[in-house]
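The following block was generated as part of the benchmark described in Methods. Ligand: adenosine-5'-triphosphate.
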Amino acid sequence: MIEIKNIYKSFENKDVLKNISKVFNQGETNLIIGRSGSGKTVLLKSIVGLHEVDKGQILYDNRDFTSMGQKLRKKLRQEMGMVFQGGALFDSLTVEENVRFPLDMFSELTSLEKQKQVDFCLDRVNITDANKLYPSEISGGMQKRVAIARSIVLNPKYLFCDEPNSGLDPETSMVIDELIHSITVDLKITTIINTHDMNSVMEIGDNILFISDGEMCWEGNRKEILYSENQKLQEFVFANKQYQRIRDDKINQ
Ligand SMILES: Nc1ncnc2c1ncn2[C@@H]1O[C@H](COP(=O)(O)OP(=O)(O)OP(=O)(O)O)[C@@H](O)[C@H]1O
């Protein structure tokens, strides 16, 4: 479980995050949603410590990340997996070398144990027969799956994904969403995903935080989102007419 309490963050004179509080649950896909520029990436980067917050607290299973020294933070970072935009695979490494990379950096496992863990993670994301290929030789969807395999290779307690579906077609996006969701449930991870993809919201939104202009505007789950009376949320959700129709159909049933 990750808890953020009264988070503030500004750059120069621009207040980007204003008093955000939220509990992100273990074993659930927690989504941060909002329009482009609303502060989602800054919030995610603040939670993982890539930005220092100006005020507020970030607690990882009650461990206060905000007041932690660098040594403890470094240790805690090893419990985090990250899938950032673009996948960020190393072009010069093969698929299996990419997945093994965090193990080479941070684990004391033998080479046989590493190979077993790499094979387990690639199998978990349904990648077979591509171990020796380079990222340029596989599709965008496969690259995403390799990035996910790499993000779970150290058995993280926490998983962060920034727009995991960017650049993917709707069908592949759904595969990636389902994959992240099932990994989250099976491995009991606390997963936080940034997205502005309403399809993802409706498929895997267990616990949703909607931010608007850096402020916390609404929280709930995918069942509640279509029926919320919150006006800013409605403008965001029903920008896609398909969801207006789904709601109207359900109301008229
Ligand atoms: N390092 C920075 N320095 C100054 N301003 C920044 C910095 N990073 C982000 N911002 C500003 O913070 C605001 C929120 O940006 P952020 O990237 O978090 O939005 P977002 O909701 O993730 O958008 P998108 O969905 O387009 O990725 C924007 O106005 C952006 O210009």
